[in-house]
Amino acid sequence: MTHVVVAGAGLAGIACAHELGKKGVDVTLVDRNDYHQFQPLLYQVATSQLPAVDVARPLASIFRSLDSVRVIQAEITDLDFEARSLVAAGETITGDHLVVAAGATANFFGTPGAEEFSYPLYSVVDAEKLRHHVSDLLGGAHDPLDVVIVGGGPTGVETAGAFAELFRALRKMDHPGGRGEAWLINHGPDLLAPFSDKSHTYAHDKLVEHGAKVRLGVGVTSVDAEGVALSDGTRIASRTVIWAGGESASPIAATADTTPGRGGRIDVLADLTVANFDEVYAVGDVSNIPGADGKALPQLGSVAQQAGLWAAENILRTIKGKPKKPFAYRDKGIMAMIGRGAAVAEVGAHRHEVEGPLAFAAWLGVHAALLSGAHSKVDAFLSWAWDYFDSDHSAIVECHGDPKRIAWADDVKPTI
Ligand SMILES: Cc1cc2nc3c(=O)[nH]c(=O)nc-3n(C[C@H](O)[C@H](O)[C@H](O)COP(=O)(O)OP(=O)(O)OC[C@H]3O[C@@H](n4cnc5c(N)ncnc54)[C@H](O)[C@@H]3O)c2cc1C
């Protein structure tokens, strides 16, 4: 009986294990958590728009009906491609195939103080830490209340939009926390760099309209307990610096027997296997996957989910004695939600540009498809998200720290 070991239960690992489990293949899925966390909704947790349990789903619930999938909660410390194995909690687990899907972590690019004093946003634990910190700060209303977000990619823009919204709502309520400002600092000249010029301008104007302070063309040169120093010689006083300034592969990628590629990621061939290791796959944010134009595909949920599924299909083909197929990415486009009523999307491979509610509908469609890998009922998410996008009411809810639930109706709760 074929045994597949999957390292990491993010969007890629879940898609792979689920597909193999449906076909009755023996799978051992290893993750440090006993739950799957949905990263695209982490900033909603950090800004108290969603409770943490709503973006984390127990792995036991996801795989309940798939008897051939065994889930192990343990820290992975080593990968051995030659042996198709990993080491987790001191135990070596070997498969006929190994799928590495361990995601990414923040890359501070050696910026002094960044690792020590800034908040990354990669896990539910990160988001909860940030939420508690912000709520303590705003509760005490001790200056400086300003929040600095480093990096103007989709994560930075969405997070800045959410914090600008929070401060605006606090001001409306005459809450002393309303003195705070949300700053977005971007080294490059444009926000949302991979998008079109029209989208750059739209994102900038909407953020400013929502109350964010945007600084373009300046880098953060250091972070300390009192704020950030910028490359133009100025400083912003802040105790809340959020790092959305770049990412690199999960450190376990470096334990493998290959030289890491760009971003510390594992380079893979078109069929998603690692060169010279026919039965070893790397998928999602931990990997550099070549696109049709030869350039690596972006670190996106859709890429991770589709690649995880594709790796499973190639393993199933190998089991049947058929050749593996090169990964064909179905590009759904790129999109970002900037705040209530404001979103931008460039839909499909041809990047058809839309803004406002139509862009939000596209964002929603893509997120619902991503969530459907872990949650069978995404209608609750759709109704929560429309309510958020459409109404000002939930802005007030945020300030009380009693957010509206998505209401997944799970009977098992993750142990966050
Ligand atoms: C804040 C934020 C917002 C985002 N928003 C969007 C968006 O709107 N749209 C979009 O398409 N993409 C978005 N992304 C990117 C998207 O979330 C990722 O591309 C996607 O989650 C990658 O999936 P993955 O399975 O490769 O990795 P992950 O989802 O990161 O999963 C990796 C898993 O491996 C586990 N793991 C890692 N190392 C170890 C170890 N040593 N031991 C045990 N377990 C380990 C982790 O616990 C985790 O469960 C966002 C990312 C972030 C951080």
Written description of the protein model:
The protein starts with a strand and ends in a 16-residue tail after the last helix. Helix 9 packs antiparallel against helix 10. The protein has 2 domains: 3-32 and 74-106 and 247-319, FAD/NAD(P)-binding domain (3-Layer(bba) Sandwich), CATH 3.50.50; 114-245 and 333-390, FAD/NAD(P)-binding domain (3-Layer(bba) Sandwich), CATH 3.50.50. It is globular. The chain has a 6-stranded mixed β-sheet with strand order 5-2-1-9-22-21, with helices on one face. The protein has helices spanning 11-22, 42-46, 59-62, 114-117, 124-140, 154-172, 197-209, 301-319, 356-371, 379-390, 393-400; strands at residues 3-7, 26-31, 35-37, 56-58, 69-73, 76-80, 85-88, 91-94, 97-100, 104-106, 118-120, 147-150, 182-186, 213-216, 220-224, 227-230, 235-237, 240-243, 247-249, 266-267, 273-274, 277-282, 287-288, 333-339, 342-347, 352-355. With 416 residues, it is of the alpha/beta class. The chain is built from 11 helices and 26 strands. A hairpin with a 2-residue loop joins strand 24 (333-339) and strand 25 (342-347). Flavin-adenine dinucleotide binds at residues 8-13, 31-33, 39-40, 42-43, 75-76, 101-104, 121-122, 154-155, 250, 252, 284-286, 299-302, 304.
